[in-house]
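Batch 3, record 17
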Amino acid sequence: MKDIDEQLKELFMEAVKAVAAKRGVELPEGFDIFLERPRRPELGDWATTVAMQLAKTFGERPFDLANEIISNLPQNPHVEHIAVAGPGFINISLTREWEASLLREILSSPEEYGRSDLGGGRRVQVEFVSANPTGPLHVGHGRGAAVGDVTANILAMAGWRVEREYYINDAGLQMELLGRSVQSRYFELLGEPEKAPFPEDGYKGDYTYDLARGIIEAEGDRFLKVRLEESLPAFITRSAREILKWIKKDLDDFRVHFDVWYSEKALYEKNLVDETISFLRNRGYTYEKDGALWFRSTAFGDEKDRVLIRSNGSPTYFASDVAYHKDKFDRGFDMVVDVWGADHHGYIPRMKAAVQALGRSPDDLKILLIQLVNLFSGEGQVSMSKRSGEFVTLRQVIDEVGVDATRYFFLMRRCDSPLDFDLELAKRASLENPVFYVQYACARINSIFREAASRGVCLPPVEALDIASLGTAEERKLIKTLSTFPEEVEGAAGELAPHRLVNFAYQLAGDFHVFYNANRVLGAGESLEQSRLLLVRATQLVLEKTLGLLGISIPERM
RNA sequence: GCGCCCGUAGCUCAACGGGAUAGAGCAACGGACUUCUAAUCCGUAGGUUGUGGGUUCGAGUCCCGCCGGGCGCGCCA
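Prediction for the assembled complex:
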Protein backbone atom coordinates (compact mmCIF):
# COMPACT_ATOMS: atom_id res chain seq x y z
CA MET A 1 0.00 0.00 0.00
CA LYS A 2 1.25 3.44 -0.86
CA ASP A 3 1.81 5.60 2.22
CA ILE A 4 -1.17 7.70 3.08
CA ASP A 5 0.80 10.94 2.99
CA GLU A 6 1.86 10.15 -0.58
CA GLN A 7 -1.76 9.53 -1.49
CA LEU A 8 -2.86 12.79 0.08
CA LYS A 9 -0.12 14.70 -1.70
CA GLU A 10 -1.34 13.39 -5.03
CA LEU A 11 -4.93 14.30 -4.24
CA PHE A 12 -4.00 17.85 -3.39
CA MET A 13 -1.70 18.19 -6.34
CA GLU A 14 -4.58 17.23 -8.64
CA ALA A 15 -6.93 19.64 -6.93
CA VAL A 16 -4.45 22.51 -7.03
CA LYS A 17 -3.74 21.88 -10.69
CA ALA A 18 -7.45 21.83 -11.44
CA VAL A 19 -7.99 25.14 -9.70
CA ALA A 20 -4.95 26.63 -11.43
CA ALA A 21 -6.27 25.52 -14.81
CA LYS A 22 -9.68 27.05 -14.14
CA ARG A 23 -8.11 30.36 -13.16
CA GLY A 24 -5.50 30.23 -15.90
CA VAL A 25 -2.77 30.64 -13.30
CA GLU A 26 0.73 29.17 -13.60
CA LEU A 27 1.99 27.26 -10.54
CA PRO A 28 5.40 28.32 -9.21
CA GLU A 29 8.43 26.39 -10.48
CA GLY A 30 9.03 23.19 -8.51
CA PHE A 31 5.83 23.55 -6.55
CA ASP A 32 5.21 20.69 -4.16
CA ILE A 33 2.50 19.88 -1.66
CA PHE A 34 3.76 20.01 1.90
CA LEU A 35 1.86 17.99 4.47
CA GLU A 36 2.32 18.36 8.18
CA ARG A 37 0.84 17.10 11.40
CA PRO A 38 -1.51 19.59 13.05
CA ARG A 39 -0.11 20.71 16.36
CA ARG A 40 -3.35 19.95 18.11
CA PRO A 41 -4.42 16.38 17.41
CA GLU A 42 -8.16 17.09 17.58
CA LEU A 43 -7.80 19.14 14.41
CA GLY A 44 -7.11 16.02 12.39
CA ASP A 45 -4.46 13.59 11.25
CA TRP A 46 -2.87 15.75 8.59
CA ALA A 47 -2.87 19.35 7.50
CA THR A 48 -1.62 21.36 4.60
CA THR A 49 -0.92 25.03 4.13
CA VAL A 50 -1.04 25.06 0.33
CA ALA A 51 -3.82 27.60 0.26
CA MET A 52 -1.79 30.05 2.30
CA GLN A 53 1.31 29.44 0.24
CA LEU A 54 -0.51 29.93 -3.04
CA ALA A 55 -2.79 32.80 -2.00
CA LYS A 56 -0.46 35.38 -3.48
CA THR A 57 0.01 33.52 -6.77
CA PHE A 58 -3.72 33.16 -7.16
CA GLY A 59 -4.53 36.62 -5.88
CA GLU A 60 -7.22 35.23 -3.61
CA ARG A 61 -7.85 35.08 0.10
CA PRO A 62 -6.26 31.93 1.54
CA PHE A 63 -9.55 30.93 3.13
CA ASP A 64 -11.48 31.10 -0.16
CA LEU A 65 -8.72 29.36 -2.05
CA ALA A 66 -8.70 26.57 0.53
CA ASN A 67 -12.39 25.97 0.00
CA GLU A 68 -11.96 26.00 -3.74
CA ILE A 69 -9.17 23.43 -3.50
CA ILE A 70 -11.28 21.20 -1.30
CA SER A 71 -14.19 21.20 -3.70
CA ASN A 72 -11.85 20.05 -6.47
CA LEU A 73 -10.36 17.24 -4.41
CA PRO A 74 -10.81 13.72 -5.84
CA GLN A 75 -12.41 11.11 -3.62
CA ASN A 76 -10.29 8.90 -1.43
CA PRO A 77 -11.68 6.04 0.66
CA HIS A 78 -9.37 6.77 3.60
CA VAL A 79 -10.40 10.38 4.02
CA GLU A 80 -13.11 10.84 6.62
CA HIS A 81 -13.34 14.59 6.86
CA ILE A 82 -11.76 17.71 5.43
CA ALA A 83 -12.19 21.20 6.80
CA VAL A 84 -10.75 24.66 6.42
CA ALA A 85 -9.66 26.25 9.67
CA GLY A 86 -8.11 29.49 10.83
CA PRO A 87 -6.65 31.66 8.09
CA GLY A 88 -6.61 28.83 5.55
CA PHE A 89 -5.32 25.60 6.99
CA ILE A 90 -6.81 22.49 5.43
CA ASN A 91 -7.22 19.75 8.00
CA ILE A 92 -7.73 16.12 7.07
CA SER A 93 -9.10 13.35 9.26
CA LEU A 94 -8.71 9.74 8.25
CA THR A 95 -11.23 6.96 8.68
CA ARG A 96 -11.15 4.35 11.39
CA GLU A 97 -10.90 1.78 8.67
CA TRP A 98 -7.61 3.38 7.69
CA GLU A 99 -6.40 2.90 11.27
CA ALA A 100 -7.44 -0.74 11.05
CA SER A 101 -5.52 -1.25 7.83
CA LEU A 102 -2.48 0.39 9.42
CA LEU A 103 -2.58 -2.03 12.37
CA ARG A 104 -3.07 -4.97 10.04
CA GLU A 105 -0.07 -3.83 8.02
CA ILE A 106 2.12 -3.67 11.13
CA LEU A 107 0.92 -7.04 12.38
CA SER A 108 1.19 -8.92 9.13
CA SER A 109 4.45 -7.52 7.79
CA PRO A 110 6.40 -5.96 10.64
CA GLU A 111 9.64 -6.35 8.69
CA GLU A 112 8.39 -3.95 6.05
CA TYR A 113 6.84 -1.37 8.35
CA GLY A 114 8.94 1.79 8.43
CA ARG A 115 11.04 0.74 5.47
CA SER A 116 11.18 3.28 2.68
CA ASP A 117 12.83 3.81 -0.64
CA LEU A 118 14.38 7.19 0.09
CA GLY A 119 17.80 5.80 -0.71
CA GLY A 120 16.57 4.02 -3.81
CA GLY A 121 19.25 1.36 -3.44
CA ARG A 122 22.05 3.90 -3.70
CA ARG A 123 25.25 3.17 -1.82
CA VAL A 124 26.30 5.19 1.21
CA GLN A 125 29.35 4.84 3.36
CA VAL A 126 29.30 5.91 6.97
CA GLU A 127 32.78 6.46 8.33
CA PHE A 128 33.00 6.97 12.06
CA VAL A 129 35.07 6.68 15.22
CA SER A 130 38.31 6.54 13.21
CA ALA A 131 40.37 7.26 16.32
CA ASN A 132 44.17 7.10 16.12
CA PRO A 133 45.33 3.80 17.54
CA THR A 134 47.31 5.68 20.15
CA GLY A 135 45.21 4.81 23.17
CA PRO A 136 41.91 3.36 24.31
CA LEU A 137 38.65 4.93 23.12
CA HIS A 138 37.30 7.63 25.39
CA VAL A 139 33.71 8.74 25.90
CA GLY A 140 33.81 11.21 23.03
CA HIS A 141 34.62 8.39 20.64
CA GLY A 142 31.78 6.45 22.22
CA ARG A 143 29.28 9.13 21.31
CA GLY A 144 30.55 9.16 17.75
CA ALA A 145 30.34 5.37 17.67
CA ALA A 146 26.71 5.34 18.78
CA VAL A 147 25.70 8.14 16.41
CA GLY A 148 27.50 6.63 13.42
CA ASP A 149 26.16 3.16 14.06
CA VAL A 150 22.55 4.23 14.44
CA THR A 151 22.75 6.62 11.50
CA ALA A 152 23.88 3.66 9.42
CA ASN A 153 20.97 1.56 10.70
CA ILE A 154 18.51 4.30 9.86
CA LEU A 155 19.88 4.82 6.36
CA ALA A 156 19.60 1.09 5.72
CA MET A 157 15.95 1.22 6.79
CA ALA A 158 15.43 4.11 4.39
CA GLY A 159 16.56 2.14 1.40
CA TRP A 160 20.28 2.86 1.23
CA ARG A 161 22.92 0.18 0.79
CA VAL A 162 25.15 0.97 3.74
CA GLU A 163 28.76 0.25 4.59
CA ARG A 164 30.41 1.14 7.89
CA GLU A 165 34.04 2.06 7.81
CA TYR A 166 36.71 2.83 10.37
CA TYR A 167 39.66 4.86 9.09
CA ILE A 168 42.82 3.97 10.94
CA ASN A 169 45.12 6.98 11.21
CA ASP A 170 48.22 4.87 11.47
CA ALA A 171 50.66 6.86 9.38
CA GLY A 172 51.32 10.11 11.16
CA LEU A 173 53.57 11.68 13.73
CA GLN A 174 51.19 10.65 16.49
CA MET A 175 52.07 7.03 15.87
CA GLU A 176 55.73 7.84 16.19
CA LEU A 177 55.03 9.60 19.46
CA LEU A 178 53.19 6.56 20.71
CA GLY A 179 56.11 4.33 19.71
CA ARG A 180 58.59 6.52 21.56
CA SER A 181 56.36 6.63 24.63
CA VAL A 182 56.13 2.86 24.81
CA GLN A 183 59.80 2.50 24.02
CA SER A 184 60.63 4.74 26.95
CA ARG A 185 58.39 2.66 29.24
CA TYR A 186 60.16 -0.44 28.02
CA PHE A 187 63.57 0.89 29.02
CA GLU A 188 62.16 2.14 32.30
CA LEU A 189 60.69 -1.25 33.19
CA LEU A 190 63.95 -2.95 32.34
CA GLY A 191 65.85 -0.64 34.65
CA GLU A 192 67.53 1.64 32.13
CA PRO A 193 65.26 4.68 31.98
CA GLU A 194 68.06 7.11 31.14
CA LYS A 195 68.67 5.49 27.75
CA ALA A 196 65.22 6.37 26.39
CA PRO A 197 63.85 9.56 27.94
CA PHE A 198 60.09 9.97 27.83
CA PRO A 199 59.16 12.23 24.91
CA GLU A 200 57.69 15.64 25.49
CA ASP A 201 53.92 15.44 24.90
CA GLY A 202 54.18 11.66 24.94
CA TYR A 203 51.26 9.41 25.82
CA LYS A 204 51.23 9.21 29.57
CA GLY A 205 48.39 6.81 30.26
CA ASP A 206 49.08 3.69 32.27
CA TYR A 207 48.31 1.62 29.23
CA THR A 208 51.71 2.49 27.79
CA TYR A 209 53.20 0.37 30.58
CA ASP A 210 50.88 -2.48 29.64
CA LEU A 211 52.05 -2.21 26.06
CA ALA A 212 55.70 -2.19 27.14
CA ARG A 213 55.16 -5.22 29.34
CA GLY A 214 53.59 -7.03 26.42
CA ILE A 215 56.64 -6.33 24.31
CA ILE A 216 58.97 -7.53 27.05
CA GLU A 217 56.98 -10.73 27.24
CA ALA A 218 57.20 -11.31 23.52
CA GLU A 219 60.67 -10.02 22.74
CA GLY A 220 62.55 -10.06 26.02
CA ASP A 221 65.16 -7.37 26.57
CA ARG A 222 66.74 -7.60 23.14
CA PHE A 223 65.79 -4.02 22.21
CA LEU A 224 68.01 -2.70 24.99
CA LYS A 225 71.04 -3.30 22.84
CA VAL A 226 69.60 -1.89 19.63
CA ARG A 227 69.74 1.75 18.60
CA LEU A 228 66.50 3.53 19.45
CA GLU A 229 65.75 4.54 15.86
CA GLU A 230 66.22 0.96 14.76
CA SER A 231 63.76 -0.54 17.22
CA LEU A 232 61.20 2.24 16.98
CA PRO A 233 59.22 0.72 14.07
CA ALA A 234 58.76 -2.45 16.09
CA PHE A 235 57.42 -0.46 19.04
CA ILE A 236 55.05 1.45 16.78
CA THR A 237 53.72 -1.58 14.96
CA ARG A 238 53.30 -3.75 18.01
CA SER A 239 51.64 -0.99 20.04
CA ALA A 240 49.27 0.00 17.26
CA ARG A 241 48.26 -3.59 16.63
CA GLU A 242 47.59 -4.14 20.33
CA ILE A 243 45.63 -0.92 20.77
CA LEU A 244 43.58 -1.68 17.70
CA LYS A 245 42.68 -4.97 19.32
CA TRP A 246 41.44 -3.09 22.40
CA ILE A 247 39.48 -0.69 20.26
CA LYS A 248 37.81 -3.51 18.34
CA LYS A 249 36.91 -5.25 21.56
CA ASP A 250 35.45 -2.08 23.07
CA LEU A 251 33.39 -1.40 19.97
CA ASP A 252 32.29 -4.99 19.75
CA ASP A 253 31.05 -4.89 23.33
CA PHE A 254 29.36 -1.57 22.53
CA ARG A 255 27.50 -3.39 19.71
CA VAL A 256 29.24 -1.42 17.00
CA HIS A 257 30.58 -3.39 14.05
CA PHE A 258 32.41 -2.26 10.94
CA ASP A 259 32.43 -3.69 7.45
CA VAL A 260 35.78 -2.19 6.55
CA TRP A 261 38.85 -1.16 8.52
CA TYR A 262 40.77 1.13 6.23
CA SER A 263 44.38 1.94 6.93
CA GLU A 264 45.92 5.32 6.18
CA LYS A 265 49.21 3.53 5.59
CA ALA A 266 47.53 1.52 2.84
CA LEU A 267 46.70 4.79 1.08
CA TYR A 268 50.39 5.52 0.76
CA GLU A 269 51.30 1.95 -0.09
CA LYS A 270 48.80 1.98 -2.95
CA ASN A 271 50.27 5.30 -4.04
CA LEU A 272 46.86 6.94 -3.84
CA VAL A 273 48.17 10.13 -2.27
CA ASP A 274 50.51 10.83 -5.18
CA GLU A 275 47.83 9.90 -7.67
CA THR A 276 45.35 12.24 -6.09
CA ILE A 277 47.82 15.09 -6.08
CA SER A 278 48.51 14.47 -9.77
CA PHE A 279 44.78 14.40 -10.39
CA LEU A 280 44.38 17.83 -8.82
CA ARG A 281 47.49 19.17 -10.52
CA ASN A 282 46.32 18.00 -13.96
CA ARG A 283 43.09 19.86 -13.50
CA GLY A 284 44.86 23.05 -12.58
CA TYR A 285 43.73 23.15 -8.97
CA THR A 286 47.24 23.42 -7.55
CA TYR A 287 50.15 25.84 -7.61
CA GLU A 288 53.57 26.16 -6.04
CA LYS A 289 54.49 28.83 -3.56
CA ASP A 290 57.26 29.12 -0.96
CA GLY A 291 58.51 25.69 -1.96
CA ALA A 292 55.20 24.03 -1.12
CA LEU A 293 52.37 22.69 -3.26
CA TRP A 294 49.02 24.35 -2.59
CA PHE A 295 45.46 23.35 -3.34
CA ARG A 296 43.37 26.20 -4.67
CA SER A 297 40.47 25.54 -2.29
CA THR A 298 39.40 29.19 -2.43
CA ALA A 299 38.10 28.39 -5.92
CA PHE A 300 35.44 26.31 -4.13
CA GLY A 301 34.52 28.64 -1.33
CA ASP A 302 37.22 27.98 1.25
CA GLU A 303 38.63 31.07 2.92
CA LYS A 304 42.24 30.29 2.11
CA ASP A 305 44.24 27.85 0.02
CA ARG A 306 45.67 24.76 1.70
CA VAL A 307 49.05 23.10 1.54
CA LEU A 308 49.17 19.61 0.05
CA ILE A 309 52.93 19.06 0.05
CA ARG A 310 55.13 20.83 2.56
CA SER A 311 58.32 22.56 1.48
CA ASN A 312 60.18 19.63 3.05
CA GLY A 313 58.54 17.33 0.52
CA SER A 314 56.16 15.44 2.80
CA PRO A 315 52.42 15.46 2.18
CA THR A 316 50.09 17.01 4.75
CA TYR A 317 47.36 15.16 6.60
CA PHE A 318 44.92 17.04 4.39
CA ALA A 319 46.54 15.57 1.28
CA SER A 320 46.00 12.04 2.50
CA ASP A 321 42.47 12.92 3.52
CA VAL A 322 41.67 14.15 0.01
CA ALA A 323 43.14 10.93 -1.36
CA TYR A 324 41.05 8.95 1.09
CA HIS A 325 37.86 10.70 0.01
CA LYS A 326 38.72 10.28 -3.64
CA ASP A 327 39.08 6.59 -2.96
CA LYS A 328 35.70 6.51 -1.23
CA PHE A 329 34.00 7.94 -4.29
CA ASP A 330 36.07 5.75 -6.61
CA ARG A 331 34.74 2.77 -4.71
CA GLY A 332 31.30 3.76 -5.99
CA PHE A 333 29.58 5.38 -3.06
CA ASP A 334 26.86 7.80 -4.02
CA MET A 335 26.99 9.50 -0.65
CA VAL A 336 29.64 9.60 2.02
CA VAL A 337 28.95 10.42 5.67
CA ASP A 338 31.85 11.44 7.90
CA VAL A 339 31.42 11.61 11.67
CA TRP A 340 33.88 14.07 13.19
CA GLY A 341 34.59 15.66 16.53
CA ALA A 342 33.09 19.15 16.64
CA ASP A 343 36.52 20.72 17.06
CA HIS A 344 37.15 19.84 13.40
CA HIS A 345 34.38 22.05 12.07
CA GLY A 346 36.92 24.48 10.62
CA TYR A 347 38.03 21.63 8.39
CA ILE A 348 34.68 21.31 6.60
CA PRO A 349 35.06 24.01 3.93
CA ARG A 350 38.36 22.64 2.67
CA MET A 351 37.04 19.09 2.57
CA LYS A 352 33.93 20.17 0.72
CA ALA A 353 36.18 22.11 -1.64
CA ALA A 354 38.21 18.99 -2.22
CA VAL A 355 35.10 16.97 -2.98
CA GLN A 356 34.14 19.50 -5.65
CA ALA A 357 37.61 19.44 -7.13
CA LEU A 358 37.16 15.69 -7.38
CA GLY A 359 34.14 16.36 -9.55
CA ARG A 360 31.41 15.66 -7.03
CA SER A 361 28.70 17.77 -5.52
CA PRO A 362 29.58 19.08 -2.06
CA ASP A 363 26.31 17.51 -0.92
CA ASP A 364 27.65 14.04 -1.68
CA LEU A 365 29.72 14.46 1.48
CA LYS A 366 27.74 14.82 4.70
CA ILE A 367 29.56 15.66 7.87
CA LEU A 368 28.15 14.98 11.30
CA LEU A 369 29.85 16.91 14.06
CA ILE A 370 29.89 15.29 17.46
CA GLN A 371 29.92 17.75 20.32
CA LEU A 372 31.63 17.26 23.63
CA VAL A 373 30.44 14.88 26.30
CA ASN A 374 30.58 16.44 29.75
CA LEU A 375 30.79 13.67 32.26
CA PHE A 376 29.31 14.18 35.69
CA SER A 377 29.31 11.89 38.61
CA GLY A 378 26.68 13.16 41.03
CA GLU A 379 27.78 16.70 41.75
CA GLY A 380 31.25 16.91 40.32
CA GLN A 381 32.30 17.13 36.72
CA VAL A 382 34.81 14.46 35.78
CA SER A 383 37.77 16.13 34.19
CA MET A 384 39.10 14.93 30.91
CA SER A 385 42.52 15.60 29.59
CA LYS A 386 44.39 13.46 27.17
CA ARG A 387 47.55 15.31 28.10
CA SER A 388 47.60 14.01 31.65
CA GLY A 389 46.40 10.64 30.43
CA GLU A 390 43.48 10.83 32.83
CA PHE A 391 40.62 10.67 30.37
CA VAL A 392 37.62 8.50 31.05
CA THR A 393 37.49 5.58 28.67
CA LEU A 394 34.44 4.21 26.88
CA ARG A 395 35.24 0.91 28.58
CA GLN A 396 34.93 2.45 32.03
CA VAL A 397 31.57 3.97 31.21
CA ILE A 398 30.00 0.86 29.74
CA ASP A 399 31.34 -1.26 32.59
CA GLU A 400 29.81 1.17 35.04
CA VAL A 401 26.42 2.02 33.56
CA GLY A 402 25.89 -0.66 30.93
CA VAL A 403 25.66 -0.54 27.15
CA ASP A 404 21.94 0.26 26.93
CA ALA A 405 22.03 3.35 29.10
CA THR A 406 25.28 4.54 27.54
CA ARG A 407 23.94 4.26 24.01
CA TYR A 408 20.67 5.91 25.00
CA PHE A 409 22.38 8.88 26.61
CA PHE A 410 24.79 9.33 23.72
CA LEU A 411 21.89 9.32 21.28
CA MET A 412 19.24 11.32 23.10
CA ARG A 413 20.48 14.77 22.08
CA ARG A 414 21.14 16.08 18.63
CA CYS A 415 24.76 15.16 18.08
CA ASP A 416 25.99 18.71 17.46
CA SER A 417 24.89 19.94 20.85
CA PRO A 418 27.03 19.30 23.92
CA LEU A 419 25.87 16.45 26.12
CA ASP A 420 25.75 16.37 29.88
CA PHE A 421 26.14 12.77 30.91
CA ASP A 422 25.47 12.08 34.56
CA LEU A 423 26.90 8.66 35.40
CA GLU A 424 24.93 8.44 38.64
CA LEU A 425 21.70 9.19 36.83
CA ALA A 426 22.38 6.71 34.05
CA LYS A 427 22.93 3.99 36.64
CA ARG A 428 19.92 4.86 38.73
CA ALA A 429 16.92 2.61 38.26
CA SER A 430 14.32 5.32 38.68
CA LEU A 431 11.89 7.53 36.88
CA GLU A 432 14.56 10.11 36.20
CA ASN A 433 16.17 7.63 33.88
CA PRO A 434 14.54 7.58 30.44
CA VAL A 435 16.21 4.32 29.37
CA PHE A 436 14.26 2.37 31.95
CA TYR A 437 11.09 4.19 31.07
CA VAL A 438 11.30 2.88 27.53
CA GLN A 439 12.50 -0.58 28.45
CA TYR A 440 9.84 -0.84 31.12
CA ALA A 441 7.19 -0.50 28.44
CA CYS A 442 8.71 -3.54 26.70
CA ALA A 443 8.75 -5.47 29.95
CA ARG A 444 5.12 -4.65 30.63
CA ILE A 445 4.09 -5.79 27.16
CA ASN A 446 5.94 -9.03 27.65
CA SER A 447 4.25 -9.54 30.95
CA ILE A 448 0.83 -9.11 29.38
CA PHE A 449 1.59 -11.88 26.92
CA ARG A 450 3.09 -14.01 29.67
CA GLU A 451 -0.03 -13.65 31.76
CA ALA A 452 -2.21 -14.26 28.72
CA ALA A 453 -0.38 -17.49 27.99
CA SER A 454 -0.82 -18.67 31.55
CA ARG A 455 -4.54 -18.11 31.13
CA GLY A 456 -4.51 -20.05 27.91
CA VAL A 457 -5.09 -16.94 25.79
CA CYS A 458 -3.09 -16.73 22.55
CA LEU A 459 -2.49 -13.86 20.22
CA PRO A 460 -5.60 -13.63 18.05
CA PRO A 461 -5.36 -13.67 14.25
CA VAL A 462 -5.24 -10.28 12.53
CA GLU A 463 -8.82 -10.79 11.31
CA ALA A 464 -10.04 -10.58 14.90
CA LEU A 465 -9.24 -6.87 14.99
CA ASP A 466 -12.36 -4.78 15.55
CA ILE A 467 -11.26 -1.20 15.17
CA ALA A 468 -14.56 0.21 16.36
CA SER A 469 -13.96 -1.31 19.77
CA LEU A 470 -10.67 0.56 20.18
CA GLY A 471 -12.26 3.89 20.86
CA THR A 472 -10.74 5.31 24.02
CA ALA A 473 -8.56 8.41 23.79
CA GLU A 474 -5.53 6.40 24.93
CA GLU A 475 -6.08 3.78 22.25
CA ARG A 476 -6.51 6.38 19.52
CA LYS A 477 -3.37 8.19 20.62
CA LEU A 478 -1.35 5.00 20.65
CA ILE A 479 -2.50 4.08 17.14
CA LYS A 480 -1.68 7.55 15.91
CA THR A 481 1.82 7.41 17.30
CA LEU A 482 2.33 4.00 15.72
CA SER A 483 1.31 5.52 12.41
CA THR A 484 4.07 8.14 12.59
CA PHE A 485 6.90 5.60 12.70
CA PRO A 486 7.59 5.56 8.93
CA GLU A 487 7.79 9.35 8.72
CA GLU A 488 10.02 9.42 11.79
CA VAL A 489 12.45 7.01 10.19
CA GLU A 490 12.39 8.96 6.96
CA GLY A 491 12.92 12.21 8.81
CA ALA A 492 15.78 10.79 10.83
CA ALA A 493 17.35 9.42 7.64
CA GLY A 494 16.92 12.62 5.68
CA GLU A 495 18.40 14.78 8.40
CA LEU A 496 20.89 12.19 9.61
CA ALA A 497 19.44 12.78 13.06
CA PRO A 498 19.33 9.60 15.14
CA HIS A 499 18.13 11.50 18.21
CA ARG A 500 14.73 11.82 16.59
CA LEU A 501 14.25 8.09 16.87
CA VAL A 502 15.10 8.23 20.57
CA ASN A 503 12.37 10.82 21.01
CA PHE A 504 9.99 8.58 19.11
CA ALA A 505 10.79 5.58 21.32
CA TYR A 506 10.16 7.70 24.40
CA GLN A 507 6.90 9.01 22.99
CA LEU A 508 5.66 5.57 22.04
CA ALA A 509 6.61 4.11 25.42
CA GLY A 510 4.80 6.98 27.11
CA ASP A 511 1.66 6.49 25.04
CA PHE A 512 1.74 2.83 25.91
CA HIS A 513 2.10 3.52 29.65
CA VAL A 514 -0.87 5.87 29.51
CA PHE A 515 -2.90 3.27 27.62
CA TYR A 516 -1.85 0.55 30.04
CA ASN A 517 -2.90 2.49 33.09
CA ALA A 518 -6.30 3.37 31.70
CA ASN A 519 -7.29 0.27 29.77
CA ARG A 520 -7.30 -3.31 30.94
CA VAL A 521 -6.34 -5.78 28.28
CA LEU A 522 -6.92 -9.23 29.78
CA GLY A 523 -10.44 -9.86 30.91
CA ALA A 524 -11.85 -6.89 29.02
CA GLY A 525 -14.40 -9.06 27.30
CA GLU A 526 -13.66 -11.42 24.46
CA SER A 527 -13.83 -9.17 21.42
CA LEU A 528 -12.30 -6.13 23.11
CA GLU A 529 -9.59 -8.25 24.70
CA GLN A 530 -8.64 -9.61 21.28
CA SER A 531 -8.50 -6.19 19.69
CA ARG A 532 -6.43 -4.81 22.55
CA LEU A 533 -4.06 -7.75 22.39
CA LEU A 534 -3.50 -6.98 18.73
CA LEU A 535 -2.91 -3.30 19.51
CA VAL A 536 -0.41 -4.25 22.20
CA ARG A 537 1.28 -6.63 19.80
CA ALA A 538 1.59 -3.90 17.16
CA THR A 539 3.06 -1.59 19.79
CA GLN A 540 5.54 -4.24 20.77
CA LEU A 541 6.63 -4.79 17.17
CA VAL A 542 7.21 -1.09 16.52
CA LEU A 543 8.86 -0.40 19.86
CA GLU A 544 11.21 -3.32 19.51
CA LYS A 545 11.98 -2.29 15.99
CA THR A 546 12.90 1.19 17.17
CA LEU A 547 15.10 -0.12 19.95
CA GLY A 548 16.67 -2.45 17.42
CA LEU A 549 17.64 0.54 15.30
CA LEU A 550 19.07 2.21 18.37
CA GLY A 551 20.98 -0.91 19.40
CA ILE A 552 19.27 -1.03 22.77
CA SER A 553 18.24 -4.37 24.19
CA ILE A 554 14.71 -5.48 24.96
CA PRO A 555 14.23 -6.88 28.46
CA GLU A 556 11.81 -9.75 29.04
CA ARG A 557 11.07 -8.49 32.50
CA MET A 558 12.41 -5.85 34.86
C1' G B 1 40.19 40.61 14.96
C1' C B 2 37.72 37.07 11.34
C1' G B 3 34.66 32.55 10.66
C1' C B 4 31.21 28.60 12.35
C1' C B 5 27.72 26.81 16.14
C1' C B 6 24.63 27.89 20.28
C1' G B 7 21.19 31.03 23.73
C1' U B 8 13.60 28.26 24.66
C1' A B 9 10.18 26.99 32.08
C1' G B 10 14.47 26.75 38.27
C1' C B 11 17.53 22.35 35.56
C1' U B 12 18.27 19.14 30.98
C1' C B 13 16.19 19.45 26.33
C1' A B 14 11.93 19.08 21.96
C1' A B 15 9.49 21.85 18.24
C1' C B 16 10.40 17.80 11.01
C1' G B 17 10.70 23.07 4.62
C1' G B 18 8.45 29.82 8.33
C1' G B 19 2.36 27.83 10.33
C1' A B 20 -2.67 27.40 14.45
C1' U B 21 -2.83 28.19 21.86
C1' A B 22 5.91 27.09 22.11
C1' G B 23 5.89 21.02 24.14
C1' A B 24 8.32 16.86 27.28
C1' G B 25 11.18 15.05 31.37
C1' C B 26 13.50 16.25 36.06
C1' A B 27 13.09 19.13 40.41
C1' A B 28 8.24 21.27 43.69
C1' C B 29 3.26 20.37 45.37
C1' G B 30 -1.40 17.20 45.57
C1' G B 31 -3.62 12.51 44.17
C1' A B 32 -4.10 6.88 42.09
C1' C B 33 -1.97 -0.01 43.64
C1' U B 34 -7.90 -5.98 45.80
C1' U B 35 -5.90 -5.32 38.77
C1' C B 36 -1.84 -7.60 32.80
C1' U B 37 4.75 -5.03 37.03
C1' A B 38 3.49 1.94 40.89
C1' A B 39 10.78 1.65 37.23
C1' U B 40 3.79 3.55 35.91
C1' C B 41 -0.26 7.05 35.69
C1' C B 42 -3.44 11.65 36.77
C1' G B 43 -3.55 16.76 38.37
C1' U B 44 -1.35 21.82 39.88
C1' A B 45 2.32 25.40 39.09
C1' G B 46 6.13 27.22 35.96
C1' G B 47 7.60 31.41 29.40
C1' U B 48 8.16 38.86 26.71
C1' U B 49 11.94 31.77 23.08
C1' G B 50 19.16 36.51 25.45
C1' U B 51 18.13 41.62 23.41
C1' G B 52 16.74 45.66 19.66
C1' G B 53 15.17 46.25 14.76
C1' G B 54 13.59 44.15 9.87
C1' U B 55 11.21 40.73 6.07
C1' U B 56 5.25 38.83 5.67
C1' C B 57 -0.95 36.87 5.88
C1' G B 58 2.17 34.47 9.89
C1' A B 59 8.91 34.29 13.06
C1' G B 60 11.70 30.15 18.43
C1' U B 61 12.71 29.17 13.07
C1' C B 62 14.80 33.79 7.84
C1' C B 63 17.95 38.86 7.57
C1' C B 64 20.87 42.92 10.29
C1' G B 65 22.85 45.03 14.99
C1' C B 66 24.08 44.20 20.13
C1' C B 67 24.94 41.04 24.73
C1' G B 68 26.50 36.22 26.61
C1' G B 69 28.77 31.15 25.85
C1' G B 70 31.47 27.22 22.95
C1' C B 71 34.78 25.99 19.03
C1' G B 72 37.97 27.02 15.01
C1' C B 73 41.44 30.31 12.49
C1' G B 74 49.30 25.73 11.31
C1' C B 75 53.68 23.84 5.68
C1' C B 76 49.69 19.91 13.33
C1' A B 77 46.66 15.56 13.20
